[in-house]
Structure formats: structure tokens, C-alpha cells
Write a structure and sequence with these properties.
By secondary structure, this protein is an all-alpha fold. 69% of the residues lie in helices and 0% in strands. Helix 3 runs parallel beside helix 8.
């Protein structure tokens, strides 16, 4: 349990990388430090006097301090991001408008001009969901999307609570609040990225496998691959573990979902994605925020620490085991 206060204290240091977010106010840092010192003194006194209630008091006091500090920081950030848009999120709405205007989600010349630019590069199925929303204001949609992300985070935490079953659910709440302070979660919420949806779906996959609902897990993997390519690596695990019902669900689900996608956006966008977009964005990067398996391998063997796409005659087949690349 001491990992949680250590993590909370580390997050509060000004050197922790949280791009574009408010730093912890000095008074919160000072208050938390004083509270931790008081708790340490009480813990030492309880041990010296052999108070039976001492350890539990210390643990609950640490939990309370961490939760209060986290809530202050999260409140500041939520207030700060309320009126800020996101180019990452806007590309989905812009792609939907591009489809309405031209019949295609993809602006291939713009993708070729800047592979890391703010332009739609995902599979067609995900863009399909934004076509009915093309007429709405991007910032208003982003605010709703952030609320949906918060709901999915709570749902995800609840699923893991049911799976792990910690000694007390309040400790789980405290741990989740501290973890939400970390950079990947905050950036995903601020920029309206897809990662929360991916984590939520991956959690449901694990729950389904844990309860032997392999067919359902396969369908969800198919949905994930139709949105973002790299979860296809889970299909390899299904094969290695001989979870054939999950393999069947993935194949059938992939066919059904993409037939629906073709019926909505047209087969031409699927052709463009496979034949024109994927060759442009193929490979991987060794960049720190690319958290895919391909990027992990690239960081081990890349000659430098580039943001540019990384290719190598030996390692490229390994780092591109799955089709395409996760985008940072």
C-alpha cells in the first residue's frame, strides 16, 4: 500500500512530465508533505506504544491524504480543459465532413505530406460513427466525449474491482484516483483520444475470457481491430492459447462489422485505406509516447530516438507484425 503515497508524491513534483496541464499548487504540496510527516510520527508512536489500531489508522490516513490531493489536482485540470479544444479530436469530425463533401474520409495528399499531421488515418469503421455528428460544433462534441471517457474509466475500474476483489473497495477508489493523475490518462481526456475506449474494450475482453465467453471476446477484438489496428496482436494470443471460439468470434465479427462499414462509407474508402494510407503510415516510431509493442521493439534497436518512422531491413518485419502503426 505504500506504493500509492510514493506515486502521489512523485506526481506532485514539478519535474513530472504532464504536458499542458496545471502543476500542483504549492500549498497542496506543502499540505500533503506536512500531513505525511504527521502520519509518519503517529505511525512511529503507535509502533512504540504497540497500539493495535495504529497500522489501520496510518493506512486510512494515507489514503485520505492521497485522495484529497488527487481530487484537487483533477479538479484544477478539469476546469482548465473545459474551454480548450483538441486537434486530435477535431480530425474525426473533419474526416466526417470530408466524407460528406467528397465521399471519402481520407485526404491522401495531406497524409503523404505529413505522416504525423492532424489528419484522419484510422480504419474507416471508426470514422463512420462521426458522420452523423459532422454538423455539430467540435468543442461541444469534445466535452461530451470527455464525459463519456470519464464514464468508461469508472466502468473499467469497476470491472477490475470485480475481478481483483481487493480487501476494501475504498482502497481501490483511492488507487484509481491516484493513477488518473498520471500523464497518459490526463492527456487522453484532454485531447479526446481513443485510448480510454481501447482500455475499456480490452478490459471487457479480459472479463469475457475470465468467464469463458470466448465468442464475445472475439467480437470485441474484431471491433477493436476495426477501430485501431494494433489490438490484432490479441488474435495471435488466441491462436497460441487455442481459444478457437475467440478466433471464430474475431473472424465472424470482423466480417460483419466491416460489411456494415462498407455499407455506410463505401468499399472505396476501405480500398484507399489498405492500398494508399497503410503504405504511407507503415512502420513504427521509437518515440516515448508510442506505447505499442512495435514501438517497444523499435526503442531496443533504433539507432537513435527518432520521431520519424523507423524502418530496418531486419527489424521492420518484426515491428510491423501487425498491419500499420499506432499513432502518437
Amino acid at each position: 500500500w505504500l506504493v500509492m503515497p510514493w506515486l502521489q508524491r512523485a506526481v506532485m513534483e514539478s519535474g513530472i512530465y504532464v504536458r499542458g496541464f496545471a502543476v500542483y499548487p504549492a500549498w497542496v504540496l506543502q499540505w500533503t508533505t506536512i500531513a505525511m510527516l504527521v502520519i509518519t510520527v503517529v505511525a512511529g508512536l503507535a509502533r512504540w506504544r504497540q497500539w493495535s489500531w495504529g497500522p489501520q489508522l496510518v493506512q486510512w490516513a494515507v489514503l485520505g491524504v492521497c485522495v484529497c490531493s488527487s481530487l484537487v489536482y483533477l479538479g484544477l485540470n478539469w476546469q482548465g480543459m473545459a474551454h480548450v479544444g483538441s486537434a486530435d479530436f477535431d480530425v474525426w469530425v473533419i474526416a466526417a465532413r470530408h466524407w460528406l463533401a467528397t465521399g471519402s474520409l481520407y485526404d491522401v495528399p495531406q497524409i503523404a505530406g505529413d505522416v504525423f499531421g492532424y489528419v484522419y488515418k484510422y480504419p474507416p469503421l471508426y470514422g463512420m460513427f462521426f458522420i452523423p455528428l459532422a454538423g455539430f460544433n467540435e468543442l461541444e462534441l469534445l466535452r461530451i466525449y470527455r464525459l463519456i471517457d470519464v464514464g468508461l474509466l469508472i466502468w473499467t475500474a469497476y470491472i477490475w474491482l470485480r475481478i481483483i476483489r481487493p480487501p476494501h473497495w475504498l482502497w481501490w477508489v483511492g488507487a484509481v484516483l491516484v493513477c488518473v493523475n498520471l500523464n497518459p490518462v490526463l492527456e487522453t481526456l484532454k485531447y479526446g483520444q481513443i485510448d480510454v475506449v481501447v482500455v475499456w474494450l480490452c478490459t471487457i475482453i479480459y472479463w469475457c475470457l475470465h468467464h469463458d465467453h470466448d465468442d464475445v471476446a472475439g467480437w470485441i477484438v474484431a471491433l477493436l481491430v476495426s477501430i485501431k489496428m494494433y489490438p490484432a496482436v490479441v488474435l495471435i494470443w488466441f491462436v497460441l492459447q487455442r481459444r478457437w471460439y475467440a478466433v471464430r468470434g474475431t473472424i465472424i465479427g470482423g466480417v460483419v462489422l466491416n460489411v456494415v462499414g462498407m455499407a455506410v462509407v463505401g468499399w472505396h474508402d476501405y480500398f484507399v485505406f489498405v492500398c494508399e494510407v497503410l503504405p504511407i503510415i507503415g512502420g513504427t516510431t521509437a518515440y516515448v509516447e508510442n506505447q505499442t509493442i512495435a514501438a517497444f521493439i523499435a526503442r531496443l534497436v533504433a539507432p537513435a530516438y527518432p520521431l520519424a518512422p523507423f524502418t530496418d531491413a531486419v527489424w521492420s518485419p518484426v515491428t510491423t507484425l501487425k498491419i500499420g502503426r499506432a499513432h502518437v
